[in-house]
Amino acid sequence: SQQGEEDPQALSIQEGENATMNCSYKTSINNLQWYRQNSGRGLVHLILIRSNEREKHSGRLRVTLDTSKKSSSLLITASRAADTASYFCATDGSSYKLIFGSGTRLLVRP
Amino acid sequence: NAGVTQTPKFQVLKTGQSMTLQCAQDMNHNSMYWYRQDPGMGLRLIYYSASEGTTDKGEVPNGYNVSRLNKREFSLRLESAAPSQTSVYFCASRGLGEKLFFGSGTQLSVL
Fold first, then answer.
1. Which of A63, B44, B59, B75 is the most buried (most CB within 10 A)?
2. Which residues of B touch A4 (CB under 8 A)?
3. How high is the pLDDT of residue B86?
C-alpha cells in the first residue's frame, strides 16, 4: 500500500477561494514534499517541509506538518483557474525512497 | 538544460514482448527512480538507484528489471510484458537538494 493517503480525492472550488488538501502517512520521515501534476505531464516539485518543521510558506502555498499525527496539509490561498491540477504528497524516509500518496484532484472554476 | 529525458514517449506492445525504457539526466544527480502511474492514481515506485552502481526494489518491482548504466542513465526493462503493466512510466532524478525532477513520461499499452 502507498505510504501517503490524501483527502479529499477530489476538490472543486471557485476561483479566489482557498483549497486545503491533507496527507496522512504511516512511518517516520525525514521530510515530506508536495508535487503538482498537470494533466498528462510529469510532476513538478512545489515545497518541502522537514520533520523538525511545523509550517512553511512559499508564495500562495502554506504547508503544515504534524509528526505526532503523521499528517500534513497543503493550503493554496486565493486559488486561480491555473491551479487546476492533481496534487501529491511524497514522504522521504531514511532509504532514499520517495513514496507518493494517491493524490487530490483540484478543479478551480473560473 | 534538458533535465530528465525519457524515451520513447509512447509504446504499444503485445503480451509477451520485451522492451526497455530509457532515461537520462544531465544534472549530475546521484539518485534516479522509476515510477508507474495508473489512471486516476498516484505514483508507485518500481525501482530506484541511490547512486551509480546500486539499485534497489521499490513498492512494485515484479516483472521489471533495471540497469544503472552510468551516472546519467537508468533504464527499465520489461522482459515479458503483461496487460497489467499498461501504465504511464515516469523517470525521476534527485541531487543533493532532495527534490525530484521528473521526465515527461512514457505511455505504455500492452495488448
1. A63
2. 42
3. 97
Q: Maximum CA pair distance of chain A? A: 42
A95 vs B: CB within 8 A: yes
pLDDT 10s digits, A62-83: 999 999 999 999 999 999 999 9
C-alpha cell at A71: 499528517
Q: Is A23 on the interface with B (CB under 8 A)?
A: no
Alpha-carbon gap, residue B7 to B59, rounded angstroms: 23
Report helix, strand or coil for A47: strand
B95, closest residue in chain A (CA to CA): A96
Place of cell 483527502: A7
Asked, as a colleague might, if the bond just before A8 is cis with ω within 30 of 0, I would say: yes
Q: Specify the residue for cell string 523538525.
A: A52
What does the mean pLDDT of chain B come to?
94
Contact list, B98 vs chain A (CB under 8 Å): 31, 33, 48, 92
Give B65's contacts (C-beta < 8 A, 6+ positions apart): B76, B77, B79
**pLDDT at position B3, please?**
94
CATH of domain A4-80: 2.60.40.10
Chain B: residue whose CA lies nearest to A50: B98
Domain boundaries defined on chain A: 4-80
